Amino acid sequence: MTNPPLLSVEGVSVELPTPRGQLLAVDKVDLEVAAGRTLGVVGESGCGKTMLSRAILQLLPKKAALSGRIMFDGQDMVQLSPEALRRLRGPSLAVVFQNPMTSLNPVLTIGTQLIETLQAHMGMAAPAAAKRGIELLAAVGIPAPEQRLRQYPHQLSGGMRQRVAIAIALSCEPKLLIADEPTTALDVTVQAQILDLLAREQQRRHMAMILITHDLGVVAGRTDEVAVMYAGRVVERAPTTTLFSHMRMPYTAALLAAIPKLDSPPHTALPAIAGRPPDPTRPLRGCSFAPRCSRADDRCQAAKPPLDTADHIGGQYACWHPLQPAAVARA
Ligand SMILES: Nc1ncnc2c1ncn2[C@@H]1O[C@H](COP(=O)(O)OP(=O)(O)OP(=O)(O)O)[C@@H](O)[C@H]1O
Ligand code: SF4
Ligand SMILES: [Mg+2]
Question: Of the four listed, 40, 113, 287, 297, which is most buried by Cβ atoms within 10 Å?
């Protein structure tokens, strides 16, 4: 018998009340992450990536309605008490947000924040926690870590702040790290360094990771599996190498075409996907991508394609008229 996955998200939906009506931010999502593995979650702005990660972390806005089941490390996250969730977040389940200032306290030194986390969650005495804090800062590539411990977040660059946030997230040896667009707010030159740092630490610690991004290029080579989200749903899911060699969803191919090319001449405008995602307060009857899809026909307008294994080699896709693998290069 195979072990259950570390995380399993089963039929999870998140609805939010808005002045325009109920907004369906996440729509019946199923996902699994095994211990030590990495999942990339990719999609355009507003497709529900952050709401899905907040559902997993049980950090949804108060008025949000969650349905479905989230099992993490053998526990039903939805049933856990606030106290049990606090004990879990940090030591077992950590998060790195897009803006490091979300997780750093501006009025405390880096050292105080790191050392207090180690004392509170790992039960370390102050001297051992200080020593470990220095090791962690060095591990995430911060020069002169002893001096950095005495500094405040505003004294660091954006890239260094994100490294500190990663050091704090890693400090309790979590089983799963959720990194929600960890480099979007950073300078392009720093982005690859931070992504490589996350990938290296993930492998070294045999930690599972969910890497959330709007850039399909970011997950290539850094994840085991990819889930592509559109309008709240997972629309394609496959092992990463399979996704890039045999993608079936026209939406995934459009995301691929939108990746900036290294050999493009300077100042080339990025190809954006034409059109906009549908209004999430007015879910469409058919495929949500139909208004933007060159392959859409009456069937696509009339009925939502299920996420199916169909003929995807090792993956699933939700499309009535999938790309043939050979057609991907032309899509
Ligand atoms: N607090 C909120 N109240 C109501 N609606 C919200 C709230 N936060 C987000 N939404 C809506 O929920 C949907 C999903 O948002 P979410 O933040 O999960 O998207 P995302 O994929 O993370 O986008 P981005 O790439 O911009 O971070 C969007 O339509 C968004 O406008
Ligand atoms: S179901 Fe139809 S509209 Fe949707 S992605 Fe596939 S071809 Fe395009
Ligand atoms: Mg987001």
Answer: 287
Q: Is the CB of 24 under 6 A from ligand 1?
A: no
Q: Is residue 87 scored above 50 in pLDDT? A: yes
pLDDT of residue 330: 44
CATH code of domain 1-92+177-185+207-260+286-317+325-331: 3.40.50.300
Q: How many CB atoms lie within 10 A of CB 318?
A: 24
Amino acid, res. 227? A
User: Which helix (H) or strand (E) is 257 found in, with range?
Assistant: helix 250-257
pTM beyond 0.90: the answer is: yes
C-alpha 324/C-alpha 250 separation (Å) is: 10
pLDDT greater at residue 313 or residue 108: 108
At 299, the amino acid letter reads R
Quote the radius of gyration of the chain (alpha carbons, Å).
Answer: 21
State how far the Cα of 44 lies from the Cα of 297, in Å rounded to an integer: 23
**Residue 288 in contact with residue 231, Cβ under 8 Å?**
yes
On whether the CB atoms of residues 246 and 259 are closer than 8 A, the answer is: no
Domain boundaries defined on the chain: 1-92+177-185+207-260+286-317+325-331
Nearest ligand by distance to the CA of 300: 2
Tokens of 73: 């490390």
Take atom 3 of ligand 2 and give the residue whose Cα is closest: 290
Structure letter (DSSP) for residue 301: H
Q: Looking at the CA of residue 294, tell me the nearest atom of ligand 2.
A: 8
Q: What is the pLDDT of residues 288-307, one digit of tens each?
A: 999 999 999 999 999 999 99
Show the beta-strand stretches assigned E in 155-303.
Answer: 176-180, 208-213, 225-230, 233-239
Return the ligand 2 atom nearest residue 287 CA. Answer: 4
